[in-house]
Amino acid sequence: MNAFTIKDLENLTGIKAHTIRIWEQRYSFLKPQRTDTNIRYYNNEELKKILNISLLNKYGFKISQIDKMSDTDITGKITSISSFEAQQENVINVLIQSMVDMAIEDFEHHLEVYIAKKGIEKTINQIIFPFMEKIGVLWITGHINPAQEHLVSVIIRNKLIVGTESISSMLSTGKSCVLFLPEGEFHELGLLFIQYLLKSRGTKVLYLGSNVPLEDVAYVIKHKKPDFVYTHLTSVSSIFSFDRFIQQSLTRLGSVPMIISGRLAAAYENKIPPQIHFKKSLQEVKEFITTL
User: Fold this and answer.
1) 84-91: long-range contacts at Cβ-Cβ below 8 A with a sequence spacing of 24 or more?
2) Burial of 76 (0-12, 13-18, 19+ CB in 10 A)
3) Based on the number of CB atoms within 10 Å of its own CB, is 85 exposed (0-12), middle (13-18) or buried (19 or more)?
4) Which of 3, 6, 122, 204 sits most deeply, having the most CB atoms within 10 A of its CB?
C-alpha cells in the first residue's frame, strides 16, 4: 500500500491542495489518515477515487453531485463523457490506477487497446508521455514502490522502442546527434521519447543509453562528429553536481552544442554557458526538434 501526500494528489489531478482540504471538510469521499505529526496521507483507493472525481468535476459535474454517486455511477459518468480530451485523461488515470495496484497485465492491456485504435505514435504522444509527466514526481520522491516503477517502466520502454523501430519517416534534417544519460542517471524513458521524436523528424540518432561516462561520449563525438549532444535529466544520484557536470561537459565534449531537458533542467537557476541549451518543458523540446 502506498502513502500519497496532498501534494502528490495536487500534481496528479491538477486540483489545488487548498481545494482538496475544502472537499474533505464538506464531503465524505476523502478520509485521509494522519502521521504522528498530523500530516495528511492518502492510500491507493483514495488516490484512485480523487482521480475519477477530479475528471468528472473538470468536465462539468458539481462536487455536491459527485459526492452522492456510487463508484459504479462515477465510472458510468466518465464513460459517457464524449470529449476526446476527457477520454484521453481517463486512459491516463486508469494507467495510474493499474500502476498503484500493480495490475501490470491491465496496464499493458490498456496501452495495447489504445495502440490498436490510434497507432503507436499517437499513443506515445497522447498517453505515454503525459502519463510519464504526471507520475514523474512520484518516482523522484519515492512515493511509489521501486518495484511498481520498474514493472511499469519496462512496459513503457518496450513500447517506445517498438515505436521508434517502426519509424519510416521520409523527412531528413541532415543532422545527427548523440543521446546519453550521465553517470548516476538511470531514468531512461524521457531520453527514449526524445529519440523517438528526433528519428520521426528525420534526425540521425546515436543512442548511448544510461549511466554513460563523459569520456565515452567524448570518444563518440570525436569519431562521429554529431551536430549536437542531448541529455535528459530526471533524477540523478545524491552525489551528482549539476554545475560540475556542465563544467566537465564543456571541458570534455569540445565545441559541440549540448541540449539538456528534464526536471533537473527545469529547476536549474544558475547562469548557463552559451554552448549549453536548456529545454525546460515538453513544448520547448518539441519546438527545438521541429526547427532542426
Assistant:
1) 86/55, 86/58, 86/59, 88/126, 88/127, 88/130, 89/55, 89/58, 90/55, 91/127
2) exposed
3) exposed
4) 6
Task: State phi, psi for 276 to the nearest 5 degrees.
Answer: -100, 135
The 10s digit of each residue's pLDDT in 249-266 is 999 998 999 999 988 888
- Secondary structure class of 113 (helix, strand, coil): helix
Going from the C-alpha of 199 to that of each of 34, 139, 207, 217, 258, the distances in angstroms are 48, 27, 11, 20, 18
pLDDT in tens, 109-164: 999 999 999 988 889 889 988 888 788 777 766 777 778 888 898 999 999 998 89
Confidence at 210, pLDDT banded by 50, 70, 90: very high
Q: Across-strand partners of 229?
A: 178, 258
Q: Which fold has domain 82-164?
A: 1.10.1240
Our CA dihedral for 164, 118, 54, 69, rounded to 10 degrees, sits at -140
Coil vs helix vs strand at 155:
helix
Residue carrying C-alpha cell 549549453: 276
- Between CA 181 and CA 188 the distance in angstroms is 8
Please give the model's pTM, rounded to 2 decimal places. Answer: 0.78
Q: Where are the domains of the chain?
A: 82-164, 169-290
289 vs 278: CA distance, rounded Å:
13
Angular region, 173: left φ>0, alpha ψ -120 to 50, beta rest: alpha
To which CATH superfamily is domain 169-290 assigned? Cobalamin-binding domain (3.40.50.280)
**Is the separation of the CB atoms in 31 and 38 below 8 Å?**
no
The residue with cell 509527466 is 133
Four-residue CA torsion sign, 202, 211, 249, 253: negative
